[in-house]
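Long-time lurker. I teach an intro course on protein structure, and each term I like to show students one example going from raw sequence to a predicted 3D structure in token notation. This year I'd like something fresh instead of my usual example. Would anyone be willing to generate the tokens for the chain below so I can use it in lecture? Attribution to the forum is fine with me.
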Amino acid sequence: MKQYIKIFLPVSLVILLGSLTFIFAQTTKRADGQFPGGDKRSFRPLPPGMMGGGLPPQVLEKLNLSDQQKEQIKTLEENSRTASKTYFDKLKSLDDQLRTVTDGETFDEEQSRAILANKAQVMAELELIRLKTGIAVKNILTAEQKTQLEQLKQQRPEMPRGGFRPDIPPPVEN
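-- Reply from a regular --
Happy to contribute to a lecture. Here you go:
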């Protein structure tokens, strides 16, 4: 019996300590948006394929922007975010409506089409805001920075757009 306790007790303690470590290491988001330790994180949802306007921060860092250019770009991005907010709210509302229509026992195709048409229109408006912001940011750049931007675009790897990928052979069927 003593030998059993000598083996069982350390194993039990390791399991208990491991479980407690796992439990207390979990981070959970509270309802007020605060994370443990007071860390506040934000998330701005974007529809698939949209970057939110302008150029990625990594690219802007490589262009050696002046302080004035940085401030102008920051203002453009804030304006874009503000203009987009109402459309994101509309998208959320339309998604909720679509979910309500499809959760029922019967499917109303006409109502679904109307909601999807509205959703497409809202997404088009968001894309226009993104494009306008991108053009406005590019117009802030000097000729030298625009040339450098074109060089950076040529250096980036080609991103697959879904569907057929020529670099991956099709699966072999037996």
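Some talking points for your students: The CA atoms of residues 53 and 133 lie 5 Å apart. The two ends are 59 Å apart (CA to CA).
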